[in-house]
Amino acid sequence: MTRPKKECSKPHMLTLRVSDDELELINGYAKKAGLSRSAYLRKVVIGKIPPIKYEIVYNSPEILKIFRNLGNITGNLNQIAKHLNQGGAFSMELRKEVSGCIAQILHIRDNVERLVGEYRGNSETHSDT
Fold it and tell me: Is the pTM here over 0.70, yes or no?
């Protein structure tokens, strides 16, 4: 006796012909979206294009140093917040620590703006006007 056919929740099949390059692109987009090729194409066809997840890798020592410094500053600010949330006094020493953190953040912001300008070019020299 043969096994009964399984009911398919997607009984209709569409066929689409693509070139090797197009197939490679579709497979790449599906992988970046974390979906199978079929699931990705279904979403694209119905107009719900899934977001592509880009992984950004920084190999610039300057940018990595900035991220390390931001991590250190974050730790300091978390310790200060914990101290204040537990009813600790806002002393002159704590005020100096907060001022130092703010100064470091502003310095890092300036470095990031400089680096972004170097990587992307100066927006004033590349305007569309």
Answer: no
